[in-house]
Every structure is written in structure tokens, then in C-alpha cells.
Amino acid sequence: MRRLLIWLFLICPVIAMPVEQVPNPLVAHNSWFSDTAGVLNANSMKVLNREIDAMEFGNGTQLTVVTVANTAGDDPKAYATRLFNHWGVGEDGVNNGVLILLVTEARRIEIEVGDGANRFLTDAECSDILQSRVVPRFKEGDYNGGVVQAVRGVISDLRGVDYQASAPIEASTDRFPVADPVVATSDDNDAMYDSSNLPAWATGGLGLSLLMGVLGLRRHLRNRPRACPGCRIAMSRLDEQADDAHLDDGQRREESLGSVDYDVWVCRQCDEKNIISYAKWFSAFSACRSCGYKALETTSTTLRSATTSSEGEGRRDENCRHCKYKRTSTYSIARIQESTSSSSSSSSSSSSSSGFGGGSSSGGGSGASW
Fold first, then answer.
1. Cβ contacts of residue 18 below 8 Å, gap of 6+?
2. How far is CA 253 from CA 172, 258, 259, 298, 318, in A?
3. Can you say whether the dihedral through the CA atoms of 126, 127, 128, 131 is positive or negative?
4. Which of 26, 56, 161, 336 could covalently link to 120 via disulfide, CB atoms 3.0 to 4.6 Å apart?
């Protein structure tokens, strides 16, 4: 194990990333994502870019996501605030921007919220998004899935608000609407930032080394020998057919759905048993709020499309493939605005230089570690 960690350290050099050197995604490639740590799925970013575009078109909210290996010695929260104001995320005067910062080496994520958006996306709501939806994914090693949950949690709270209103307007009866499942493609590890901003060895060799290191470490941890906690002799791992006899109905259902894979280790001498779960990084199923198994399937249907004069309406159907739990809820779809926020902020000097609208943040939001 120690040799493997030393190997990873040698092939994965650390790149310090001061705020001024973070590639601006709008300027570099007209995207909301600057994945300098190389941990996000390319197809996920394409899907989420469209969802963020729709939110910005609706009420001007700008949401950007940045991943870095480290913050060059700065506190992650202070780093997020400085980067937010350096780019000017959100509209000038409205301050309806949000920046999500993931720092992989510090195992820290921050949601930085503009002063105008903070009335609708409060610090407590940011904390709830992170603790209930994001941190559990990160603990499983699923950075991409955690970021997807963070983005959709923010969109759920902000896509239907009116920033001229004195109180928040609920956009949905369910805080976390589920869009179409994000499916991995062959370009999962494509860089989504301008490679000219980094040395050639960093964009090519480092990305490949990180991928190989993560996969190798995960495989090593899963396949390493295990000693029986009782008699201390080596345990044996059962094959996929034999381990089913040791799983309960819900666990077998998760395996059949492909949402979780289980390894069963047994001691041939004292019959000690150890069942270890491995959640799949990309799955169309989530944890059921009734039985707790990762067998909940969610579909969304548009009942009435939004227009420039009225909101639309959608229906969300939840169905557990294990315990038969069912739930149906409705949510509102933001009214289509006749003009985009970019036209109203085109006179801003920040917009012309950074691609964002010139918004600011005083440090609102929340962070979490795992």
C-alpha cells in the first residue's frame, strides 16, 4: 500500500493554482466549468451546461463550477470569495451569481453565493445541499456525482426566483429535481478547459497519470487480502454467484439494477463474514427514502410548457424497484424571459473582460469537508 501511494506521489506532481491563473471557462471555451483537477465527466458537463444556460436565460442567474488540486496555500473559503469577485460572477447590481469550488487535496467544497442570490439560496440551504446530497457521494469517491448534485441543488433553489421580489419564490415542491440521467461516454476524461493555459505535460501526462492512479488505488483497496477479525487467518472472497446467498433481498436487487456491487468475504475456519458495498459511480438509481436501498427510479414529465407570459408545470414520478414506494410531485418551470441577462449587462466592464456580468459576493454560502 505504501509503495502504491509513493508511486502516485511521484507520477502526479502538484500544480499550485493561484486565483489569477484559474482558466476562466466563459472566456476560454464558453462553458460554466473550469475542471483543472480533471475529476469531472465530460458528458455530465455538457448536460449541466445546458441546464445552467436555461436558468441564466430565465432570470439571469450565473452558476460556475471550478475544480482545483489546491488553493496555493489560501483558505478554500477565502479563495472562493476572491475568485468569485475576480471574475464578477452574476449580474452587476443584482449580484445573482453562484460559484462552486472543489479542492481535491484539501477534501473541501465551497458554495459561494452572490449578495443578491443569498436571499433565496441561504447559507443554511447551501449547507443542506452539501451535507445531504454532495458529501455522501464524495465519501464514495464519486466527485462527478457529487458536483452534479451540487449544481442541481443550486438550480432547484434559484431557477424560478424573481430577484426583484422581497421574499423567495419556491420553484418546486421538491428541492432536488432529477433531470435525465448522465451517462458516461468515451470522452469522460476530456479536459473542459483551454489547454493553452497549462503546460503540455500537465494537460496530457498528468491527466492520464491521475486516472491511472485513481483506478489503480481503487482496485488495490478492493482486492487487497483481508484477515479474519476473530481468528486472524486469511479470508476468502466469494464469487458473484456464491455471494448472493449472504445478501438480503434489497442488496440482491441493487446488484441486479447495477447501482451497487457487493463483495462477500468469509472465514473458512470460524464462519466470520464481511459484506462490503461498492456504489457505482454512474447510476440511474438513487437511495429510496423508504427502504434506503439504491433502487429509486425518478422520471420527470413536462405537463405544461413555460411561455413568456406564464410559468410551466412539470411532474416528477418516483418509483422504488425494491419496496414499491411511489411518490408523485409537481414543480414549476420558470417563465421564459424575452431578453437574456447578457444584453442588460453588456455595458459592464467586468462582463467585457471576464465573460461574467460583474456581480459580487461578501462571502455568503457554505462549505463542507469529507
1. 72
2. 31, 9, 9, 17, 17
3. positive
4. 161
Residues 6+ apart with CB under 8 A from 275: 246, 247, 251, 262, 263, 264, 265
pLDDT in tens, 15-73: 567 888 899 999 888 999 999 999 999 999 999 999 999 999 999 999 999 999 999 88
In this prediction, residue 230 has a pLDDT band, given cuts at 50, 70 and 90, of: confident
| Residue labelled with grid coordinates 434506503 | 292
The DSSP secondary structure of 266-323, one letter per residue, reads E-TTT--EEEEEEE-SS-SEEE-TTT-SEEEEEEEEEEE---SSS-EEEEEEEEETTT
Q: How confident is the model at residue 170 (pLDDT cuts 50, 70, 90)?
A: very low
Rounded distance between C-alpha atoms, residue 76 and residue 178, angstroms: 29
DSSP 8-state assignment for residue 197 = G
Grid coordinates of 136:
455522501
Grid cell 483551454 is found at: 194
* pLDDT at 303 (0 to 100): 87
Judge whether residue 248 has pLDDT over 60.
yes
Cα gap 48→55, rounded to integer Å: 11
109/366 Cα distance (integer angstroms): 9
Summarised one tens digit per residue, pLDDT across range 209-227 is: 776 777 777 777 888 888 8
Cβ neighbours of 139 (radius 10 Å) = 12
- The reported pTM is 0.52
Please tell me the distance from the alpha carbon of residue 136 to that of residue 123, in angstroms, as a whole number.
19
For 151, half-sphere exposure in the C-beta direction (CA atoms, 13 angstrom radius) is 28
